[in-house]
Every structure is written in structure tokens, then in C-alpha cells.
Amino acid sequence: MSSLVQRLQPLAWLKRLKRGAADGEDLPIRDWTGPAGGSQAPRILGFDSALVWCIVALLSLGLVMVYSASVALPDSPKYKLYSPTFFLSRHALSLAIAFVAALVVVQLPIKLWERAAPWLFVASLVLLVLVLIPGLGKGVNGARRWLPLGVMNFQPSELAKLAMAMYAASYMVRKMEVKERFLKAVWPMAVALAVIGVLLLAEPDMGAFVVIAAVALGILFLGGVNGRMFAVSVAMLLGAMVMMIVTNPWRLQRALAFTDPFDPQYSAGKGYQLSHSLIAFGRGELTGQGLGGSVEKLHYLPEAHTDFLLAVIGEELGFIGVACVILAFFWLTRRIFVIGRQAVVLDRVFAGLMVQGIGIWIGGQTLINMGVNLGALPTKGLTLPLLSYGGSAILMNLVALAIVVRVDIENRSLMRGGRE
């Protein structure tokens, strides 16, 4: 345990908070444990309000931009039966469902999630199998990734991201004594990752696999796995991804197109989305064309309300708007990691590793989506967390962030001498 804390190098003020709670020092944090002095469960009021307001701000911007990016879609023959507010109302419904789910999740103690982690991972695997069965899974644009549930189409890969964060954290807690031994510490996780990778690539959904692999490897590293073993694991994973791209003509064309999307051989094909995304950013300049002033969303930029929402933000709100979004995600990710490190200092290894895994998920997926929109990475089908249209993505994002808030609540309770 001590080696793990040293590896993470927690901030000095976190150490002081833990020491102050033990010595009875009057800390600058309100006591949320109730009048019984720790005999009650932590109250919901003791949370990081800045974190919550940052999330609310991003969700609000996403709601506005999804409407702006989708309002003209009914002019296309593909969406001629849809109303101009169809995607807005669906997105608002998803936000309402996700908000209710988050309120329920924030009430649940983290120990419950620790016990359920292996079973949640198994459930995600089962759902990934079900989505591949004709008649059960729903296919869109050549990919079979959704299970129709009436009010929304659920994407099992979104659940798999959270399940991997929990399972990897639980796994490292159980394997803490053998973390230096490859066969006992890394190999079983590699097998689990390979299974989930095969299922995701069968959909296909390589973008989700990249995020899940990053979460798993990140938690292994933070959990204290031997550096050489970690480097070998990363090298093997990168080699496998390169092979998957080289051996698949469709993926290879996408990888080549992003190097020069305006090349005539790519501009009307695999480089079409990226070329119009870059045009949108160029039109936005410093202050943008104004809200609703995007031209690229008028059937030039495909999937403008999902994968390429940042391009619409860039065109309408300009560099200033995009910079604000980047700073908000940077602060959000950093704050999630601080909460995770704080949990580790308080000897809550599972909670700490799980929260940092969620931070890798949110931060990593944001980085990939922005890189794709800006032409720094090959085009992948990944949404921008909290902003893009997508019911199951919004749902699982808010559930994961509700768990982060719950960990923060329990951290605050423990620092005042209460209980989890």
C-alpha cells in the first residue's frame, strides 16, 4: 500500500487533510456527517460544487449546439419525416433520464460497486454479444452497436467503458501482492481485454476499444504494475492496432486520408468529413460566425450533431468557444484525478483507481474526438463526452461522474472522522 501511495505522489494538502482528520484539527471543510458525529452515512450536500457546475455548463452547451447542428437536417431526404426539433427533444429526454439515473447512483456507497464490479463486467460482455445477434442488435451505417430499448438505443460499449474502469480497479486491489509478476498480474487482464476487443471489433467499434484499452492499461500503471511489463503491454497493444489497420483496407484508407484530406483521391471519400471539419474551423476564425451561423452543418458535414459537434462549435463560436470547451474538459479531467488521488491517500484504493480510470475515459475520449475534428488523428466514431448527441453515451457519462461525486462525498466524510 505504501508503495502505491508513493507511486502516485499525492499532494501535500491531501496528506494534511488526512492527518488533520485523525488529530481532530479544525479543517476548512464543513461537517457533512450529521449531528451524530459520523454515525450517519455521508449527506449528499457535501460535494464538489465546482465540479458539478462544470458538468452542468458542458451539458447546457451541448444541448444548445446539438439543436443548432441538427435543426436543418429535415431538409435532407434522409430525415424528411423528422421535425426541426426532433434531435433536440430526444437529447433533452436523454439528459432527463441520465439526470435521474445520476441522482440514484450518487446515493449508492462505493463498496456496493466494488462488490458488483466483476458481475458488471460480465454483464457488459453479455450485452456486447447480444448486440451482434441479428434481430436484437440495431445496425446504422454498416455498424451494429445498439440495442433498441424504446425510449433510446442503448450502446453496450458505453457500459463496457465504466465496467472496465471498475473491473480493472477491483482486479488491481485483489492482485496487489503479485503486481510485479507478469503471469499473475498482467496476463489475466490481457485476456479479458482481448475478449472485449474481439467483441467490439466485430461490431465494428475500434474507437471504443481504444478508449477501453487506455482505461485498462492506465489503471494497471497507476496500480503499480512493473514498468517493463507495462511497456511490453503497451507495445503489444499498439502493434496489434497497427496490424488491424494495415490488414483492413477500409481502416487503412481512413488512416491515409487524414494525412491529406484535401487530396482529390480522398476529398470525396474517406477524407470528406475531415476536409469539411477543417473548413468549419477555418470559417470560425477568432469569434465565429455566430450561434446558428454554421454553413457546414447544412448537409456538408456528416454527423455534425454527433462525432463532429466540435467543428460546428468552432464555426459558430470561433477559437474562443473551442478554447473554452478545451479548458473546461482539462479542468474537469484534472479534478477527477485529484479526487481519485485523494481517495488513495485515504486508503481507498479501489475508489481511487476507479475514479482515475473514469478520468482516463473522459479525458482520453475527449482528446481523441478533438484530435479527429482538428485533423490530428484518423477519423474514429467517438462522440465528444457530455456534448454530442447520443442517449447511451450521455447516460453512462453522467452515471460515471455521479460515482466520482459519490467518492468525493465519502472522502470528505472520512476526512472529518466519519465513515464511508
Automatic annotation (TrEMBL):
Residue stretches spanning the membrane: 50-71, 92-110, 116-136, 182-200, 206-223, 230-250, 308-333, 345-368, 388-409
Keyword Ligase: no
Pathway note: Cell wall biogenesis; peptidoglycan biosynthesis
PROSITE patterns for this protein: FTSW_RODA_SPOVE
Cellular compartments per GO CC: cell division site; plasma membrane
Catalytic activity: [GlcNAc-(1->4)-Mur2Ac(oyl-L-Ala-gamma-D-Glu-L-Lys-D-Ala-D-Ala)](n)-di-trans,octa-cis-undecaprenyl diphosphate + beta-D-GlcNAc-(1->4)-Mur2Ac(oyl-L-Ala-gamma-D-Glu-L-Lys-D-Ala-D-Ala)-di-trans,octa-cis-undecaprenyl diphosphate = [GlcNAc-(1->4)-Mur2Ac(oyl-L-Ala-gamma-D-Glu-L-Lys-D-Ala-D-Ala)](n+1)-di-trans,octa-cis-undecaprenyl diphosphate + di-trans,octa-cis-undecaprenyl diphosphate + H(+)
UniProt keyword annotations, A-Z: Cell cycle, Cell division, Cell inner membrane, Cell membrane, Cell shape, Cell wall biogenesis/degradation, Glycosyltransferase, Membrane, Peptidoglycan synthesis, Transferase, Transmembrane, Transmembrane helix
Enzyme class: transferase
Top-rank lineage group of the source organism: Bacteria
Gene Ontology MF, one: lipid-linked peptidoglycan transporter activity
Bilayer topology annotation: Multi-pass membrane protein
InterPro entries documented for this protein: Cell_cycle_FtsW-rel_CS, FtsW, FtsW/RodA
GO biological process, alphabetically ordered: cell wall organization; FtsZ-dependent cytokinesis; peptidoglycan biosynthetic process; regulation of cell shape
Family listed: Belongs to the SEDS family. FtsW subfamily.
Protein name: Probable peptidoglycan glycosyltransferase FtsW
Naturally occurring in which organism (per UniProt): Pseudaquabacterium pictum
Biological classification of the source: Bacteria, Pseudomonadati, Pseudomonadota, Betaproteobacteria, Burkholderiales
Gene assigned in the entry: ftsW
